[in-house]
Amino acid sequence: MSEMITADLVDLDLSAETKEAAARALAERMAALGRVTDLAGFLADVATREAQMPTGLDGGIGIPHCRSAHVTEPTLAFGRSAAGIDFGAADGPADLVFLIAAPTGADDAHLTILSALARQLMNAEFTAALRSAADTATAAALIRGDVTPQQAAAAQAEAAPPSGEAASGSAQTSPADDEAPAEAGAPDAAPTPSEAPAPKDTTGPATAGPTPEHPFRIVAVTSCPTGIAHTYMAAESLENAGREAGVELVVETQGSAGFTRLAPALIAAADGVILAHDVPVRDKDRFAGKPTVDVGVKAGINRPGELIAEIRQKAARGETTAPAAPGTPVERTGEPGEGYGTKLRKWLMSGVSYMVPFVAAGGLLIAIGFALGGYKVNKAPSVMDHFVWTQTDSWAALMFQIGGVAFAFLVPVLAGYIAYGIADRPGLVPGFVGGSIALTINAGFLGGLAAGLISGAVVTAIQRVRIPQALRGIMPVVVIPLISSAVVGFLMFVVIGKPIATAQKGMTDWLSGLSGANAVLLGALLGLMMCFDLGGPVNKVAYTFATAGIAVSDPSDSAMKIMAAVMAAGMVPPLAMALATTVRGRLFTETERENGKAAWVLGASFISEGAIPFAAADPLRVIPSAMAGGALTGALSMAFGATLRAPHGGVFVVPLIGNPFLYLIAVAAGVCASTALVVALKTLRGSAPGAPGGKREKDEHGQAARAGSADREQPVAA
């Protein structure tokens, strides 16, 4: 295994002025050693991670990092900036910059070493030694753990003249000493990057104040989106603060290198829980009924002492979480304190996201059945009774019937995973039961939505009831499924099922009666929705509306027209951006031009997300242009009477489309309109930074090239 950092990956005079330029300068060193295969693609991945959450830390540290398919092996690059670079930390710019690159399939051994480095960054002696390192070899050896900060300081003191005492690093102490406490005990107690970051025995003596029979016990969980840096830095910071406070604190790091669950006995004995995370905590229900502080991962790094004090105060007041406390995978996706409307959207999107694969598989199989056997294939007998291997009609019937079975899961899956989003796994049983009842009473998708929301609410209400400890073991297996299914079934069959079924029939009849100008206006509206947020909630509402219409054994002509319009409009944004980067490349950055090549395939495959990199970089020009083209395509598709039975597939299902030639004209018209608008709007702005014809820039080998300075070129978030 090659070393993850060498002297060639260290820049002690990093001259970059922005975080993007710093990332580029360090990434170029990785590319020069063959550890990054596509510089632009890797920088786009770094920018995407940076967009999720700033990577600046108090104490003058910046840790841009990502997992990328363009990385050949886990690699570290280190830069030291005299002027400082803004990475979004509250206390100001960073002078120590670590670019951490991990391949998408990095093995645990590599990731363990990366996580150990993250822990070392909480060691003030370690960062001080890096600030005073006189040469790149010493800095690389410090980061690898080949030498300790004390050894590096001693070697430097021997080599330096007496007048060089100022270089000892004492004046370079991290400005975040008050937030990242110095290591307790012997200097070599901190782990080196070659050690696994296993949870430490953090038992310490009780300090001032009343002392119970045992120290105050805390269990904690840390996690971040990539699971490489912040996860382990927060763990180290909490453990250091725990030692200072005299508490017994054990951390479960849910990182990329996997995680070892805290022992049930540790959790049972804990007096409080600290959750410092930016992604869902796995198996969060283990901590139910304990005093809990729930914060973002950066709070665990920057103010661990405050969190420990807060959890002790909660324990003293007797504040505990109920077994039904929020924390399902969907609900914890956002920021704390979000409103009910935001939570409702996430619950619904939970159901839709699990339903879409059934829609795609079932719809395409049904469409293949129609393509092979004609529109009478739905009258074919069961393949259990009649199947001839050499007959096309038998294979057509098989495809159609498999697709029909897959489609039968749509409403139960929708309802089940809406309930899951609200109440976690206990919501699955009543959700699926309620969804199946919705199908039985012909309440359709509206019934599935209602069943999912009701199931989640019923399970949540049951979980809030305090029960004896002896009965808790059978609650998730027997009591909750039994009571919640009975309640949801009663409500769906007896109370709300019939009104919802009536509403569903009314909507179906309205769609069937659409014609003329009304149909064209609906197509334009759906086109606008498909292109507004490119795969986001509004896009999913339009797509779900369309798939709901064809998710029956015999969809109406109007429903198939709506499906055709929705898919056509969804293809427009990526295809338009691809065309624009081809005809006016100087208006786009190098990264955007590379993304444009991929957008041809994504757009042709009906993957609207292919336009997201362009919209993220220039939303005020790209999104309106895409919406205009999508609205035109949707309106034309409806006007031409194009129909589609398949819910996905893009140009690859053109043979299954009614009026395919006019359908493709509608798509082409929208693409041309969007391209013309985005080119016109970007022309008013002028050439993009890093595009041909702009200012001078450096290529990957450091030579003068065509456009904008390398220090100023900014990668686009994908």
Short structural description:
By secondary structure, the protein is an alpha/beta fold. The chain is built from 24 helices and 14 strands.
Record keyword descriptors for this entry.
PTS_EIIB_2/3; globular; Rossmann fold; 4 domains; kinase; disordered C terminus; 4-stranded parallel beta sheet; PTS_IIC_fruc; alpha/beta; Mannitol-specific EII, Chain A
Description of the structure:
The model is unreliable at 163-212, 324-337 and 694-718 (pLDDT under 50). The protein has 24 helices and 14 strands. It has 718 residues and is α/β, with parallel strands linked by helices. α1 (19-32) runs antiparallel to α2 (39-52). The relative contact order is 0.07. The two termini are 31 Å apart. The chain has four domains: 7-153, Mannitol-specific EII, Chain A, CATH 3.40.930.10; 217-317, 3-Layer(aba) Sandwich (Rossmann fold); 340-506, no CATH class; 516-684, no CATH class. Pfam families: PTS_EIIA_2, PTS_EIIC, PTS_IIB. Residues 694-718 have a biased composition (Basic and acidic residues).
